[in-house]
Amino acid sequence: MNKQEKHAKAENFRARISMTAQRQQAITELAGKKEHSETDKVRLNVLFQKTAYAEGCEKEYRLLIAKLKSDANLPLDIKKITSFEAKM
């Protein structure tokens, strides 16, 4: 996936998760996956960009963070996850 495609997918995902319930569902879906595709990695990056996304989704984020930290194939930089978790 090239940079332009990643950007388009990220923008599409941002629009999709604008509502708290949609964001909760997306986080739960990602937490339930055993393996993450390239698109999932883009979505995870979007979710961990703004701490405001955690508002109303704290429980789901904590589940996702725990799942990611226990994953041997961590799809994101651990520093990004830890920093986000500290700001929540």
Nutshell version of this structure?
The chain is mainly alpha-helical.
Helix-strand layout with pairing:
Layout: H1 3-16, H2 20-32, H3 38-47, H4 58-70, H5 78-87
Helix pairs in contact: 1-3, 2-4, 4-5
Task: List the keywords.
about 90 residues, mainly alpha, 5 helices
What is the domain tally? 1
Query: Could you tell me the strand content as a percent range?
Result: under 5%
**In this structure, how is the largest beta sheet organized?**
none
Catalogue the unreliable spans: none
Give the H and E element order: HHHHH
Characterize the overall form: globular
Overall pLDDT score: 92
Radius of gyration: 12 Å
The number of helical elements comes to: 5
Helix vs. strand class:
mainly alpha
State the total count of DSSP E strands.
0
The CA-CA distance between the termini, in Å, is 31 Å
Estimate percent helicity: 55-70%
What does this protein look like?
The chain has 88 residues and is mainly α. The chain has one domain (3-87). It has five helices and no strands. The longest helix has 14 residues, at 3-16.
